[in-house]
Amino acid sequence: MNSSEGIDSNNLKAKTAQGLFWAFLSSGGIQLLNLVIGIFLARLLSPGEYGIVGMLAIFTLLANNLQESGFGIALVNIKDITHNDYNSVFWFNVCVSVLLYAVLFLCAPLIAGFFHQPCLVPLSRFVFLAFIIASFCISPNAMLVRGLKMKEKAYTSLSALIISGTVGVVMAFKGFSYWSLATQQVLYNVVICFGRFYYTRWCPTLKVDFTPVRQMFSFSYKVLITTVLTTINNNMLTVVFGRIFPAASVGNFTQANKWNTMANQLVTNTVSQVAQPVFTRINDDEERQRRAFGKLLRFTAFMAFPAMFGLALVAPQLIVAAIGEQWIDSIPLLQILCVSGAFLPLYAVYQNLLLSRGRSTSYMWLTIGQIVIMLLAVLACHTMGIRAMVMAFACINILWLLAWQWFARRYIGYRFMSMGRDLLPFMLIAVAAMCVAYLATLPLSNMYVVLAVRVAVASAVYLLTMKLLRARILEECIEFIRSKKSKH
């Protein structure tokens, strides 16, 4: 990264804090809006209608992975970047996305036949337009990430969600069924694309040179394979359920996974937007990188464990209160997913560490190993029903973190004991806080009172314990917030 991008190494700590702050506001605002919009849509649509669109999720995500081809990450990793690098990636992604859309357009009848849903033919052809639109803004997004311009990314994401969410809710109210969800996805990408070009003021040129793409390929293709496999891993249950269970069952799982994703992505997106550019800046200083890694891991654990365990605790009351009793079958699935969801943000720290060190091969094989073990575990439980399959999925997600830790120890000397010391206190305190909150609400019967008291008690116990133990992460967060207030 060159000096023109405005990041002085002497000011890296301040930039990191500022980036985390805006990334958190962005992720928090997005998840809050997703929550509000999701509540309206879930009350207007049925589990079956959600399930129809959920069946297409894996195809849309895979197409997104393929059209980006790992070059977005490669652009962030380049030390001295030029317009030609951005321009080369821009035109490559556009060409690939158009080709992929043509393939998926022709495959729409096959997709509909696989899921036994004829309505997926026109629906899929419309939904898949989203990844063509997304391909236009990969280079501008890399510019924003390299510069740690999280405020601009926050404004863009929030605007896109407000506009697309409003349109989706209005369409659902008017009776457009699953088309409201599809339109929301496409429109979201349109607004995101306009926003990223607006903030970067970057324009592609017609003089195309694919030399930079060829130079990045040895790194990018491994990231591509890894990203595709991760997408398959994260969505394999939707595909399996869509094949063997009715649309309503797929809808219940999709709803549970949506709430789980909203919660863990709040932390994951906050960390991911900052981790790689920070690690890349200091990858020639192993000791400094190890300290930064440990600190980001503690920050992630500090946020992820109480958020996800707390969601599992209040899931029965929250789901019924927010979206109604028609979704009650999604509650146990959500609680299982939340337990593993507490560990998913930690993966982002390990993954960005390996990518910043150019270890895309290790990244790829770690993901392949997880996919294979996950698939075997899920298939072994298929005769025991949906809950058993989701439980097997969750267990592997938790245990596989140890494999990533082995590589962190190998590359930067971050030991297993250090991992335990950085993660266990936050996990145990979060569990204790949830237990106290659960016991405190046993005498209560009103659903809304139970929900409010559990949130209040769990939050108070967790934060008070952190304060009494003088957790450095909490103190630094408080200091940063105070400094922001004093400036205003």
Could you walk me through the main structural features you see in this protein, from its secondary elements to its overall organization?
By secondary structure, the protein is mainly alpha-helical. It has one domain (3-483). Helices cover 83% and strands 0% of the residues. It has helices spanning 12-44, 47-54, 57-68, 71-77, 83-115, 120-127, 129-135, 138-146, 150-173, 179-200, 211-244, 247-281, 286-323, 331-341, 344-356, 360-380, 386-399, 401-412, 416-440, 447-468, 472-487. Helix 12 (247-281) runs antiparallel to helix 13. It is globular, with a radius of gyration of 22 Å.
Protein traits:
single chain, 488 residues, mainly alpha, 0% strand, globular, disordered N terminus
Quantity of strands, as a count: 0
How would you characterize the largest beta sheet? none
Write down the domain tally: 1
C-alpha geometry? globular
- Mean pLDDT, as a whole number? 82
Q: List the secondary-structure elements in sequence, H or E.
A: HHHHHHHHHHHHHHHHHHHHH
The computed structural class is mainly alpha
| H/I helix tally | 21
Give the low-confidence spans: 1-10
Helix content: over 70%
Radius of gyration (Å) = 22 Å
Beta-strand percentage? under 5%
Gap between N and C termini, in Å? 31 Å
